[in-house]
Specification:
The protein is built from five helices and 17 strands. By secondary structure, it is an alpha+beta fold. The protein has a single domain, classed as Nitrilase/N-carbamoyl-D-aminoacid amidohydrolase (4-Layer Sandwich), CATH 3.60.110. The strands form four sheets. Strands 5-4-3-2-1-17 form a six-stranded mixed β-sheet. The longest helix has 22 residues, at 189-210.
Length: 295
C-alpha cells in the first residue's frame, strides 16, 4: 500500500423519517467506518431529512439550522471521538430569510475546519432549490485537513467543470460531492439509464481533467413528493474514482451502503506528469468563459 494511501468511506443512506433518526443512522455509519479503518467519511447531501425541495413551501424553512448548531455539535463530537475527517451537508439558516445548502468539514475534532456553500442552485421539476437556497458566497476554496486539501462541492455543482477546475487550481488533493439525485418514476428505463450514466461520466471527467481522485455520495430509496407529485427514486450509485477516472469502488442503486475504498494520493502526481493538462491550458485565450454566451 502506498505511504500516501487514504482509506475513505461514503455513507449512502435513505431518509429515516426524522432528523433524530437520520443522525442516529449517521452515527452508526461513522462508527462502522472508523472500525473499518476509514480516515475520511463523506455524507450525502441534506442528510438530516427528506429531499424537501420537491415542492415549494415556506414551512420547509423550519428544517434549517445555524452553523454551528445542534447537528454540527453532534457530528463534530463523533469526528473527535472517532478521529475521523467528516464532510457533512446541512440546510443552513444564516439569518432570517437567508439560507444556504452548506457542506461542513470536521478534522478529527469538534471544531469546524471549514465550510462550503453550494454555488450552483438548480430550479427544475422536483428540484426547486432556488426557492430555498441562496447561492454560495465563499467561492471555490479547498478546505485544509490532516488528510489533505478537500475540494468540497455539492450536487448540482457536479455538472460544471469550472468548479472542479477552480478547486484543482487552488491545490485540492481530492474532489468531493455530497449529492441527492434520482429518477422521475414516470421516465422510461432507457431515459433513466442515460441520466445515471451522464451523472457518472460527468464526474469521472472531472477526475480525468484535473488528475484528482473524486468521491461522490448519493442517497437512495423512493421519496414521495409532499404535494402529491410523482416523487423521486434516488439512484444511489455512490462511487470513488481515481485520477484517471477509474472506478475504485461503486455502490448499488437501491441499497443503504457503507462504501469503502483506498485512494492513492501519490498517483495524482504521476498522472499529471504524463497528462499535463494544467501545463497546456491556454489561459490567454479563455476570457470569453466569463460571458454568459458568445452571441
Amino acid at each position: 500500500m502506498s505511504p500516501k494511501s487514504l482509506k475513505v468511506a461514503l455513507l449512502q443512506e435513505t431518509d429515516h423519517g426524522s432528523t433524530a433518526a437520520n443522525l442516529d443512522a449517521i452515527e452508526v455509519g461513522l462508527r462502522e467506518a472508523a472500525g473499518a479503518g476509514a480516515q475520511l467519511v463523506l455524507l450525502q447531501e441534506l442528510h438530516n431529512g427528506p429531499y424537501f425541495c420537491q415542492h415549494e413551501s415556506v414551512d420547509e424553512f423550519d428544517r434549517a439550522e445555524s452553523i454551528p448548531g445542534p447537528s454540527t455539535e453532534r457530528i463534530g463530537t463523533l469526528a473527535e471521538e472517532l478521529r475521523l475527517v467528516v464532510v457533512c451537508s446541512l440546510f443552513e439558516r444564516r439569518a432570517a430569510g437567508l439560507y444556504h445548502n452548506t457542506a461542513v468539514v470536521f478534522d478529527r475534532s469538534r471544531a469546524i475546519a471549514g465550510v462550503y456553500r453550494k454555488m450552483h442552485i438548480p430550479d427544475d421539476p422536483a428540484f426547486y432549490e432556488k426557492f430555498y437556497f441562496t447561492p454560495g458566497d465563499l467561492g471555490f476554496e479547498p478546505i485544509q485537513t490532516s488528510v489533505g486539501k478537500l475540494g468540497v462541492l455539492v450536487c448540482w455543482d457536479q455538472w460544471y467543470p469550472e468548479g472542479a477546475r477552480l478547486m484543482a487550481l487552488a491545490g485540492a488533493d481530492l474532489l468531493l460531492y455530497p449529492t441527492a439525485i434520482g429518477w422521475d418514476p414516470a421516465d422510461a428505463q432507457d431515459e433513466k439509464d442515460r441520466q445515471r450514466e451522464a451523472w457518472i461520466i460527468s464526474q469521472r471527467a472531472h477526475s480525468v481533467a484535473n488528475g484528482l481522485p473524486l468521491l461522490s455520495v448519493n442517497r437512495t430509496g423512493f421519496e414521495a413528493s409532499p404535494d402529491g407529485g410523482r416523487g423521486i427514486q434516488f439512484w444511489g450509485s455512490s462511487f470513488v474514482a481515481g485520477p484517471q477516472g477509474e472506478f475504485l469502488a461503486q455502490a448499488s442503486t437501491d441499497q443503504r451502503e457503507l462504501l469503502l475504498a483506498d485512494v492513492d494520493l501519490a498517483r495524482s502526481e504521476s498522472v499529471r506528469r504524463i497528462w499535463p493538462f494544467l501545463r497546456d491550458r491556454r489561459i490567454d485565450a479563455y476570457a470569453d468563459l466569463l460571458k454568459r454566451y458568445r452571441d
